[in-house]
Design brief:
about 600 residues, alpha+beta, wza like fold, Outer membrane lipoprotein wza fold like, 6 domains, 5-stranded mixed beta sheet, about 25% helix, about 25% strand, disordered N terminus
Length: about 600
Amino acid sequence: MNKLAQRAERIQRFQSLSILTFLMVAFPSMGLPQLSFLPQTGSLSLASTPPQVEDAYRLGSGDRISINIFQVPQYSGEFEVLVNGTINLPQIGGVSVDGLTLEQAAAKIAEQYESRRILRQPRITVSLIASRPLIIGIAGEVHRPGSYTLPLDGSKLPTVSRAIKIAGGITQAANLQQVQLRRPRGDGSEEIINVNLWQLLQTGDLRYDTSLRDGDTIFIPTANQIDPGVGSQLANASFAADQTQPMSIAISGEVQRPGPYVVAGTGASSGIPTITQAIRQAGGVKLMADIRRVQIRRTTRTGFEQTIEVDLMPLLEGADLQQDILLQEGDSIFVPSIDNINLAQVSQLRTASFAASQTEPLNIAVIGEVFRPGPYTVTGTAKTGEAGVPGSGGSGSTPPTVTRAIQVAGGIKPLADIRLIEIRRVNNSGLPTVITINLWELLKQGDATQDTILQEGDTVFVPTATEVNPEEIGQIAQASFAPNTIRVNIVGEVQRPGLVEIPPNTPLNEALFRTGGFNSRANEGSIELIRYNPNGTVEQRRVELDFTQNANEETNPILRNNDVVIVTPSTLANISDTVDKVVSPLNRIRSLFVIPSAFIDVFRNF
């Protein structure tokens, strides 16, 4: 009677809830004041409450039960349910109890004794002594789907989470909010029970961990979308798969060494390998990688391919470890190439823990307005040499950059357009990409992002400036990627004429000082300047000297590489040279008519 009263009370509660729900839908204004205590962002759903399932155990082959008939001890005792689902009772024989609850079995046994007039109104109690092992099936997003026999822990029935754990645990693609438990009924139909194991993880409420019955089938569906924050919680669940073992994955795209790999966790959540660990094992991402659109391609247990897009940039900006998604066996990672180059992002990426090593020597080419264009092997410690002489490739742990490559190629020429330097690069898809950098911003604003790190196979092109600003030429000549020295040829009336090596941006007066200055024959008022332009033309002009002024193009110009300075003789020196040219022939003629004194002395001796 107590159980009937409890069932009637549950029915009455359900009817009251149904009436209240109908009133709220039909008359919203009536329901709102009474429900004002509910969170406005929440909603009532079946998934938020534990499933209402029948708790009664149903008998089957292998169960051991105790039958107690009040005041009839000779018919009482322990019995085992046979393979055919029957028990052998005294005076009655075989009675089928397969699929019956304990209460139903007691009622059937009482009916059998009374109908055969063996006992009158018997009071019978049936209790379970030892239950049979349960045979259940499990499918979906578990590591080892199939049929399992679950032994009972005493009289305690196994639960959904225990069955999942025995089946190898859930995968990272599991949807724990919509787990289905399919239970056969006695009439041959099937009951579907929705189990929300996510609520079990969030609240710890064991009512969400439904007890199993013999013949149950568990199905774990695939999540439509993967939430990065959910992955770590799934991995930490007691019924998660043991993924600390090495797993086979593949990685392709903008990484240093694409291909298949076997990876294992190293310090990640539960020791499970993550996407950044896999990228590091593949040599790291290249600087052309679009880490905002990294893809994980995963084949679910249902055979469909699932694509998960991951944004790794928050890992660099705010250490959001949720984006470092956990991997599972068979995952394929694809790192795409970036469409629009962002130099600031490239500079940020170069410092990432999962970036490719940038200290290895690179084979690159430098062409255009540099002194020694051609192919080079460079490192981050390359040094500029003299103009026209290749710099040293260097060695060490500094990443090779554009300016390092220019330094190895002898430095830029005076007419280089450093605002439009191009890095010509081929991405992993074989498509050419051009990155334009502005080294003038590096010189004026200190924008270090312009000094981009190079990759294997890059070509650096330094174009010729269409317009030249003399003031900028001087500033560019002092840059670290300009030559350390330039060569100027000074000839004519100086103390030590010849080839002179001077620092870039050196004015004429300092260059003349390197030769020891004018000699006594020099014209100290002007010089001839011959300049070889990058376009192949030759410029020759006379410069009126005024060394009291600072460097300027009119009276004290800044010299460039390969300039030729001619110091001409003064007017007096020119007149002297002319007189010498006239007098020298006359002196030679006069010498023919002059009798040597030694010859005259010979005749005198006779």
